[in-house]
Amino acid sequence: MTNKERYIGVVVPMITPLTADGDLDAAATRRIVEASVSARCAPFVAGTTGESASLSDAQKAALVREAVDQAAGRQLVYAGIADNRLASAIDKAREYQALGADAVVAHLPCYYAIDEDQMKRWYLALAERSPLPVILYNIPVTTGLSMPLALVDELSRHENIVGFKDSERGDERLDEALALWREREDFTFHLGWAAKSAHGLKNGLDGIVPSSANLVPALYRALYDAAKRGDVAEADRLQSVTDDISRYYQEGRILSRAIPVFKAMMAAAGLCGPDVAPPMQPLADDELARVAEEVRVRFGAYLG
Question: Which superfamily, per CATH, for 3-251?
Answer without folding.
Answer: Aldolase class I (3.20.20.70)
